[in-house]
Amino acid sequence: MKKLLILLMSTLILMPVILSAETPEENGLAIATEMDRRDKGFKDVTANMLMVLKNRHGQESTRRIRMKVLEVEGDGDKSLMIFDNPKDVKGTAFLNFTHKKGDDDQWMYLPALKRVKRISSRNKSGSFMGSEFAYEDISSQEVEKYTYKWIRDEEYKGMDCFIVEYYPVDKKNSGYTRQVSWIDKLEYRAHKVEYFDRKNSHLKTLTFKEYKKYLDRFWRADEMNMVNHQNGKSTRLEFSDYDFQTGLKDKDFSKNSLKRIR
Amino acid sequence: MKILVFLLIVKMVLSLVFIPQPYSFDLSGNVTVEGRYFFYEPLFAEQERHDISLSIEPEFYHELDAGSSFTFTPFIRTDYADSERSHFDIRELNYLWVNDIWEMRLGISKVFWGVTEFLHLVDIINQTDFVEYIDGEDKLGQPMIHVSIPREWGVVDFFILPYFRERTFPGEKGRFRSLLAVDTDRAVYESADEENHIDFALRYSHTVGDWDFGMYHFNGTGREPAFLTGVDSDGRPVIRPFYELIDQTGLDLQTVQGNWLLKLESIYRSGQGESFYAAVGGFEYSFVNIALSGIDLGLIGEWAYDDRGKEATTGFNNDIMIGTRLEINDASSTEVLAGFNEDLENSDRIFFLESSRRLRDNLKIVVDAYFVIDSSEDSTIYSFRDDDNMKVELSWYF
Predict the structure, then answer these.
(1) Is B329 in the A-facing interface, judged by CB distances under 8 Å?
(2) How far apart are CA B342 and CA B340, in angstroms?
(3) Phi, psi at A136, each rounded to 5°
(4) Other CB atoms closer than 10 Å to residue B344's CB: what's the count?
(5) Domain B19-397 - what CATH class?
(6) What ipTM was predicted for this assembly?
(7) Is A127's CB within 8 Å of B361's CB?
(8) A183: closest CA among A199, A197, A194, A170?
(9) Looking at the partner chain, which of A53, A120, A262 has a beta carbon nearest the beta carbon of B261?
(10) Cα dihedral sign for B34, B38, B42, B48?
């Protein structure tokens, strides 16, 4: 009886929410909500990130970044990125408080001057550290930041996928009219995102490689590759040493903590 | 006594440097070659037209358990033209102890306060290393006991500053000097304890939504000297820096409103002549990703006011500063900041440029320029009127 109850409960919990949705918009929202739900409870995560910038002649330059993310109950995540390389920006840190509604809070720490600088988070479409990733691409993807529309189902690299369009809520400051995302039905992971600029022409494509499962639950890709079709440049992010639930706290993501970060 | 303290520090450093594995030191830093070319014949016969200089700033960092760490950053410059510019300083030599309730930094360290771009009015903990550059952003290491208490309702910082650092000034052969050179060997203090007077500071700062603010009180020897005329050991007339005991209350405030950053810094100081207040405030507006080029452009406008008028030791008594910051966002991190400063009460006008670019992974070039377009006889920049220059810095990072 107890077993049956557990089975029943888990069926209820795991039952895709989309069953109840009807319009393409409701479908899209349901998929995004389910994606978000599946990643809830990671608490915090740290990882190393190698950023490889490639210009149109194929020349590469690299940046080495340490990344820390804290899940915030009821609001967007807090994240911290610390630069180790190039050496002239070593110790530079970027602190971001994502908000479900309204603008994010962002600060930059400049170690040479020991100065914490507030930056305007309306920089959404601006390049993050010279890469093809805009600030809005590296910011935590909260459900509330977009409206959605399910387009169709399609097979992508042998996986049964939803194709969902994302429309930014902050239309004025986003660099995009829409993003088209390929999400697998089995684990709700994004595998490809196409970005369309404000004139609705295809700007960039992001692909994800080598998803791995952490703590038996949280999926993270080892590699993300952003190709800009308009300027011929690309940026590859290679992640390593993922570590979940390390016990990071709010105070590790404060303006004060920036001053002693390494 | 001082020698004893010094030996103790040396012993501490050596014992940490030679700690056996698995303890490891993180060594980083830079070696910089700097060339300066002055566009005009110098105003004073002793000064040089060109200058070449070499500086080294290594940083030894060692992390202990539980987030505690040790940092040692010596700095040395050797300068061809000006012996006063050749100098050694310990920028940092401190031990940081962190626990859940508070953090303490013990030793020589650097602290920056402030929000505005062109004038750093509230920044007071560290003395300006003026021989480095005229913008006042280079600082000397300050011995301190710094306790920081971060709470939900803000951060409280408490400082005990047991030793005073004198401002550096160019010598007779250096550019950017006053009519009579400042004789840094003959500083005068108001306090009988001279540089051993113990200074205190208390600061409260917090972030509420789009607002960042901080307020503090400082009690001790003021970092900005007044100047007295005197004679050096050979009986020649010189200027002697006079360091007075002051009380200073400061406020810094910043808010982000969309693409606008609005900033204000203000101080009230007593103990240096008549009590006065001074303020600087303004904005920075950013245009992001202009025409999808990836280029960001910031426009900066600030106004500085000082109650003391012409007596203002900062040189900013009623000045308008406008500037523009260009970030190319390329792989070389190319950046340019251009600024223009106009005194509203006399004819002083300055234009400056700061630019930088990474040449290779470990190599960076900085090109700065500084022009006094016009100056009036009673202003602080009058003796710099022929010091227009271009500076090229090549830094190798390790």
Answers:
(1) yes
(2) 7
(3) -70, -20
(4) 12
(5) mainly beta
(6) 0.89
(7) no
(8) A194
(9) A120
(10) positive
User: What does the alpha-carbon distance between residue A128 and residue A134 come to, in Å, rounded to a whole number?
Assistant: 5
* Contact status, residue B249 vs residue B268, Cβ threshold 8 Å: yes
Query: Is B335 within 8 Å of B353 (Cβ atoms)?
Result: no
**pLDDT recorded at residue A20:** 56
Shortest distance between the Cα of B73 and any Cα of chain A, in A, equals 12
**Domain membership flag for residue A107:** yes
Distance between start and end Cα atoms, chain B: 36
Give the CATH number of the domain where residue A158 resides.
Answer: 2.50.20.10
B305, B318 contact by CB (below 8 A) = yes
Q: Which residues, 6+ apart, have CB-to-CB distance to B314 below 8 Å?
A: B119, B121, B224, B278, B304, B306
pLDDT tens digits, B262-272: 999 999 999 99
Residue ranges of chain B whose pLDDT lies below 70: 1-24
The reported pLDDT for the residue numbered B234 is: 85
Per the structure, the count of domains in chain A is 1
Q: Is A177 on the interface with B (CB under 8 A)?
A: no
- List, for residues B78-122, the tens digit of each pLDDT value: 999 999 999 999 999 999 999 889 999 999 999 999 999 999 999
Domain ranges of chain B: 19-397
Q: Cβ contact (<8 Å) for B294 and A254?
A: no
